[in-house]
Amino acid sequence: MELKKFIECFAEQFEETEFSVFQAGTRFKELDEWSSLLALSIIAMIDEEYDVRIKGEEIRNSVTIEDLYNIVKSSI
Known about the structure:
- This is Carrier domain-containing protein.
- The longest helix is centred in the middle third of the chain and has 15 residues, at about 35-50.
- It is built from four helices and no strands.
- About 10% of the residues are buried.
- The protein has a single domain (about 5-75), classed as Non-ribosomal Peptide Synthetase Peptidyl Carrier Protein, Chain A, CATH 1.10.1200.10.
- By secondary structure, it is an all-alpha fold.
C-alpha cells in the first residue's frame, strides 16, 4: 500500500477541490468541500479499495490524510 495511491483515491472523492491540494499533510476537514457525505464516501472508498472497515470515530480523530492512511495501513 502506497501513500501516493491512497492520496489519489482520497482525492477522487472530491468533485470541486483541485487535485494539487491533496498531500499527505492536508488537513482534509478544513477543505471547503468537506462534509459528512464525503466522510461516508471516504469510508466506502477505503472499504472497496483496501478491504478495511474504518469507523466514523477514526475519521473524526484524524487530522491529515496521512493520519487516515496510517490507520488503514495498520489494519491491513
